Amino acid sequence: xxxxxxxxxxxxxxxxxxxxxxxxxxxxxxxxxxxxxxxxxxxxxxxxxxxxxxxxxxxxxxxxxxxxxxxxxxxxxxxxxxxxxxxxxxxxxxxxxxxxxxxxxxxxxxxxxxxxxxxxxxxxxxxxxxxxxxxxxxxxxxxxxxxxxxxxxxxxxxxxxxxxxxxxxxxxxxxxxxxxxxxxxxxxxxxxxxxxxxxxxxxxxxxxxxxxxxxxxxxxxxxxxxxxxxxxxxxxxxxxxxxxxx
Length: 246
Prior knowledge:
Radius of gyration: 17 Å
Distance between the termini: 10 Å
Strand order of the largest sheet: 1-2-3-4-5-6-7-8
Oligomer: single chain
Helix content: 40-55%
Number of helices: 9
Structural class: alpha/beta
C-alpha cells in the first residue's frame, strides 16, 4: 500500500480548505479501484465536520492534526479523540515537530496521545525525526527511540504510520538528500520489524512532487505539506504513487 498524505496545518482560511478537500475527493475518484493507494488529508479542527461531508464516499482518510491525551475530563481547549472519531476522523497526527518544540510536548505526552488515537480506532501518523543531519544509523536509532517511547517497549500490532520528518528539513527549500533518507528509512524499517510489524514508513519534511519516485522502495509513501497545497501538485504525486506500484 502506497500512502499519499497531506497536512494543511493552519495555512488556509475555511473556504479554501473546503475547496481544497473537494479537489482531493476529485483526485481520489480518478484512482483505479484496484490501486493499492491510500490518500489522507489532515485538516484543522474547525473544518472537520464540513470536510467529512465533502469526502463522503471518497477513498480518502479524514485526518486531524492533533488530539487530547484523554477522551474526557477537565482539559480546557482540547479536542477529544472520541469525538474526532465520531465525526469520521480515521487518522491523526501525533508528535509533530511543531507540537514537540513550539508547544512543549514531551515523550510522555506523545505516548498518551498515541494511546488515545489507537483506543479510538484512529491510525496515528507518529512523527519522528532527528534534530540535525547526522550518520543515517544514528538518525534511525533516534527515530526508533521516538517510536519505542510512543508505543511502549512491548510494541504494537495496531496500524501505525511512522512519519519520518528530519527536523532540519521541515520548512526547508528542499527535502533531505535522497540517499540519506533511503538509508535512514531502511534502517528504521528494520528496527520496526519487532516493535511495530504492521507499521508503514512515510517521508515528510519539505516533500513534494518528484520525491516519491526517488525514495521508493525505501518508503511506503509521503507526508506532504506546503509543496502539495496546490491541488495540481497533489495530483502529480498521486500519479507518481500509481506509477511506482508493482
